[in-house]
Amino acid sequence: MNADLRTCCGAGAPFDRRQFLRRAWNGFGMLPVMHLLARAGGGTHGALVRHHAPRIRSVIFLYLDGGPSQVDTFDYKPLLQRDHGKPFPMAMEPTQFNENGNTLGSPWAFRQHGASGQWVSELLPHLAGHADRLCVVRSMVSDFSEHTNANYFLHTGHGQQGRPSMGAWVAYGLGSENEELPAFVVLNGGLIPPGGIDNFHSGFLPAQAQASLLRMRGEPLANVTPREAAGAQQRELELLRRLDQATLAATGGADPIAAAIQNQELAFRMQSAVPELFDLRGESAAMQRLYGLDSDYEPTRTYGRQCLLARRLVERGVRFVELTCPDTGHDRWDQHSKLRAGLGDNCRMIDQPAAALLTDLAARGLLDETLVVCGGEFGRTPFAQGKDGRDHNPFGFTTWLCGGGTRGGLAHGSTDDYGYKSVAGAVTIHDLHATILHLFGIDHERFTYRFGGRDLRLTDVYGTVQTALLA
Fold this sequence. Notes:
Blueprint: H1 3-8, H2 17-25, H3 31-40, E1 58-63, H4 78-82, E2 100-103, E3 110-113, E4 118-121, H5 125-128, E5 134-141, H6 147-156, H7 166-174, E6 184-188, E7 212-215, H8 230-251, H9 255-278, H10 285-290, H11 298-315, E8 320-323, H12 339-363, E9 370-375, E10 379-380, E11 383-385, E12 392-393, E13 397-403, E14 410-412, E15 414-415, E16 422-424, E17 427-428, H13 429-439, E18 449-451, E19 454-456
Parallel strand pairs: 1-8, 1-9, 5-14, 5-17, 6-7, 6-8
Antiparallel strand pairs: 2-11, 3-4, 5-13, 9-13, 10-12, 15-16, 18-19
């Protein structure tokens, strides 16, 4: 490294690449972080915006893209079974395809589990073993019945493209506890949801808050393996540093430039962190079997690997981890037809890995400080679409939470006798977001970002923390 670079970095003697990057991080790369510290009134790395004592350090969001059926998984309705095949007795709202048929009872049996007596379908035998840990919200509602808008709403609190994802809000407010990994990671099982990667975007927040997508096939991250010798890469970095400094000086330290620089530096550090993260040879054979990595069903193996990586990520201080699903050949959790085959395979894919994640987190003492959230953008109709499918239903569906200060064994709220609409204890998407931020120690009404002349927030002007869900 030449003398000019040593001088501008405040160094009095030559130093190696690792020292160079560490000093660069503490220089121009810290500009966005200093902006956060100023907004939050102080704090340390990884604890920048806090309004009260936090209950959690991380969230793992098991996102079930397409809308899983509540009446076939956690919301048992005896009348639905009794009236199977009869005309549906309630007024029907317009549906996506308006091919509404008769009442469709669940093809699967339900049974109560645990001391709490949680109702769980036979589709989910492994998760049923965690009945007393699950906080099952059976009264979720959404404002949208079409995938793209509903996905934006679930992820960003707004039904249109362009707003920051909830993971980005968390990353912006709290940062990562690990300087070698981003705060917000999406483990892409293969299916990017309708609405695309804007579901994971930073929107108007600084660019470093957006998700890093890691693939389950091939190289997890583009160019994570260096393509040139160490000496050549070091020379490139030295040149980039000089160019970056000149650009920062010319722009007065503009946040977009500083954010891009920070992302470049993080990408360099990830060249060692990501391969180590994905190397599962240090996990015992018993642990890999627990997650289903030896399953004869390939989607279970993929999802098991995702769940195991999610645990490894929160262990390493990543704040928000989201899992998208592998492709089971049934168009996601969107069973407009062939309900038995589609939902059966989807549940087979996630049941063992998700249950293993809860077991593993609890055994390591991580479940108390990690919130696991599982659900989709809406639910399904209790009447048939055609003969053997279910259409979209945003009026009453199920999401379950586990750990992170939630009440295990709770079945919160209820839908009507057919599982169609929420009738008690309704929880909105904004309520869910407010509650997640609350568990992070953040007051959703005070956590804002000035954009377009307004102080915007994840929950817009809505949302109530659902204290009934908390222990």
